[in-house]
Amino acid sequence: MKFETISYLDENGHLSPSFSKEISDKELVKGYRTMVITRLVDDRMITIQRQGLISFALSSNGEEACAVASAAALEFQDWMYPQYREAGIMFWRGFTIQDYLHHMFSNAEDLTLGRQMPNHFGSRELNIVPVSSPIGTKIPHAAGCAYAMKLQGEKSVAICYFGDGATSEGDFHVGLNFAAVRKAPVIFFCRNNGYAISTPCFRQFASEGIAPKGIGYGMTTFRVDGNDFFAVYDVVKQARKHCVDGLGPVLIEAMTYRLGAHSTSDDPSLYRPESEVKQWEKKCPILRLRRYLIAQGLWDEKQESSLLASVSEEITRAIAMARKTSLPPLISMIEHVYDEIPVSLREQYEEIQSIYPNIEKH
Ligand SMILES: Cc1ncc(C[n+]2csc(CCOP(=O)(O)OP(=O)(O)O)c2C)c(N)n1
Fold first, then answer.
1. What is the pTM of this model?
2. Beta carbons within 8 Å of 311's beta carbon, 6+ residues apart
3. Residue with CA at minimum distance from ligand 1 atom 25
4. Residue ranges covered by each domain of the chain
């Protein structure tokens, strides 16, 4: 089974005349700015992890269009289930750099109160369900959420993001089958970036990519150039309409590439050639959209340098503030799971306090 890859914007920023869809200049510029913010924040997080300020960082370097263009194509009431390379959806929906930095420092202002690893963002206010470390678990959750919305007659969709590696998990198959049978309004957005850490796609599955799996489950499926802002935007718009029209779920396979390491605990030079990375650098989604915007007179070098300077300064200020902010209180370790804290947990908490009387001061 062969799939065409939908693409409209080439590497030089030329937009194909076959793209006749509506997307406002304002949205395009916001999309561009959001991708740049994501890139700059990610780069700095890796640096400060190396400096020992935070414990861990993952970046979406090279994959920013997948998150930002898809978020741009959705409505605010739509539920989002990110994996961890979707910081761009947070910034698109209004999470500030400071909010993000508090999360990365796992401090008292972090919405998850340090109970999660860095890059496990989420926000109830923004309808973004926090990332969870076990790969693929969000796929059935998103299918269930979408089915619930269908039963309640809501005109909203859920979108679930994951990598190619997640499709090797049972949860992928369970979630897709359930959603297809129940016609749940859910978009399964797979970023096929070629690798699950060091495992290349050809060692994960024998099918021709991920898209044929969607057909196998009986759902509408697209393969799209994941580094093309216009193409991602367009297929997600179409997928959303398909879902709210009651036609069932959609699988999108976005062809992209992870330009950086899997995480700060990885060394990609051990499993992939530098020449491969260089090839994909030319397809960078930010570069392509910038070339388009400049050619259209919607962006210029002055705006570019001012954006880079102001975002970099904002990140520096946010790091300083996050460092100054205290850690979450010890009691938060046992709160917010049970309605009433069970006696066994309360005893453990008191034991820690008695062993480390000054623990709250650290
Ligand atoms: C169930 C499970 N197995 C293994 C891991 C370890 N692990 C973390 S990320 C990852 C790779 C995931 O690859 P993919 O889904 O392709 O996403 P990518 O990191 O490429 O964006 C693995 C194996 C995990 N977190 N959960």
1. 0.96
2. 36, 37, 40, 41, 97
3. 134
4. 25-328, 329-362
Which of 197, 203, 259, 264 for mutating ligand 1's site (highest number of atoms within 8 Å of CB)? 197
262 catalytic? Reply is: yes
192 C-alpha to ligand 1 centroid (Å): 12
Domain made up of 25-328: CATH architecture? 3-Layer(aba) Sandwich (3.40)
CA of 119 to the centre of ligand 1 (A): 14
Q: How far is ligand 1, taken at its centre, from the CA of residue 60, in Å? A: 14
Mean pLDDT by 10 residues, the chain (362 residues): 93 95 94 98 98 98 98 98 98 98 98 95 98 97 98 98 98 98 98 98 95 98 98 98 98 98 97 97 98 98 98 98 95 92 95 87 58
Among 152, 224, 138, 207, smallest CA distance to 184 is for 152
Atom of ligand 1 nearest to the CA of 193: 20
Alpha-carbon dihedral angle through residues 180, 184, 189, 192, given to the nearest 10 degrees: -20
Residue 271 a catalytic site member: yes
Return the biggest CA–CA distance within the chain. 70
